[in-house]
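Q: Given only this backbone (318 positions), what sequence would you predict?
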């Protein structure tokens, strides 16, 4: 078994909606034969831990950690990382579905590019440039759209200011160097932003590849906490993030993240072969996403619309 890469998954309640389908997608792909898979249950109270034990019983390469308390997203991942054998750690949300070969793409790229500290895939739900436009409502439809996107991407990879931790490959040496995820963020939210900021400050490189797609339900792993509690947690952790970094935080809005990639497509077209249908496909896809993110302020909305028209003209004439 190749344990150069360890996959860490947190489980907390709602097994049949989250961890179960996620693991089944990995088992169907044979990923439990290719990677070390570590599942950390954060003291589930609805019988999820028992269902998890039953599921992994026939998968000897899966390590199971049953916590006696809810250690949150940072603590649970740190628990998994402590027993991981891989030089690459892939933190994978339980509310994801993994198509065949996608984790291997991340693992391979990390091993080939030794100067990359972190790498993420694209997805249907994220808060940065990793999100692509998908119109399907059913998982199978969205997965087909993701596969089509990857077929058009030709190993394209771009730098990122911060990665979304629904699925992220991290070099174990970097994870250790930075002390893992900051457990002061409690149950979660903004711990991934904090870690990305630390990686950036340390001078390491963060990338995302458009050649790997992971389906993300988004929010399922926190849905049992209740909306009011989630909002309180987000506000508290945003303050904690600001205090930790002395208030000097400039996080790009997802709208701007997407625009930045559109600009890189324009530059790629200038230096690439004429009539690049794949690049046109991706440009159009991201323009559809851009049009879903108009600001509410009338002046900002007008400026944004003008910017999109400018980008379309530039791409056409590049």
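A: Predicted residues:
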């Amino acid at each position: 078994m190749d344990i150069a890469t360890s996959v860490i998954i947190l489980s907390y309640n709602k097994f049949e909606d989250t961890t179960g389908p996620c693991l089944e997608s990995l088992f169907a792909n044979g990923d439990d034969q290719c990677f070390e898979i570590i599942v950390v249950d954060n003291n589930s109270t609805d019988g999820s831990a028992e269902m998890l034990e039953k599921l992994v019983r026939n998968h000897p390469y899966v390590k199971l950690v049953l916590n006696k308390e809810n250690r949150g997203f940072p603590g649970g991942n740190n628990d998994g990382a402590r027993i991981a054998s891989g030089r690459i750690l892939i933190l994978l949300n339980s509310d994801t579905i993994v198509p065949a070969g996608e984790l291997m793409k991340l693992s391979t790229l990390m091993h080939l590019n030794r100067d990359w500290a972190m790498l993420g895939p694209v997805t249907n739900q994220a808060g940065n440039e990793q999100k692509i436009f998908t119109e399907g409502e059913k998982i199978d439809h969205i997965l087909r759209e993701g596969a089509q996107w990857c077929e058009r991407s030709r190993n394209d990879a771009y730098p990122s200011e911060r990665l979304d931790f629904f699925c992220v490959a991290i070099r174990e040496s970097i994870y250790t160097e930075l002390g893992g995820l900051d457990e002061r963020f409690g149950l979660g939210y903004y711990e991934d932003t904090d870690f990305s900021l630390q990686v950036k400050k340390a001078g390491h490189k963060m990338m995302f590849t458009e050649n790997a797609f992971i389906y993300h339900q988004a929010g399922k792993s926190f849905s049992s906490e209740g909306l009011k509690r989630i909002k309180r947690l987000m506000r508290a952790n945003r303050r904690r993030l600001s205090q930790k970094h002395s208030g000097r935080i400039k996080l790009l809005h997802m709208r701007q993240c997407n625009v930045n990639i559109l600009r890189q497509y324009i530059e790629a077209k200038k230096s690439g072969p004429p009539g690049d249908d794949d690049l046109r496909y991706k440009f159009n896809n991201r323009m559809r996403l851009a049009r879903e993110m108009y600001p509410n302020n009338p002046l900002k909305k007008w400026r944004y619309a003008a910017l999109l028209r400018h980008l379309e003209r530039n791409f056409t004439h590049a």
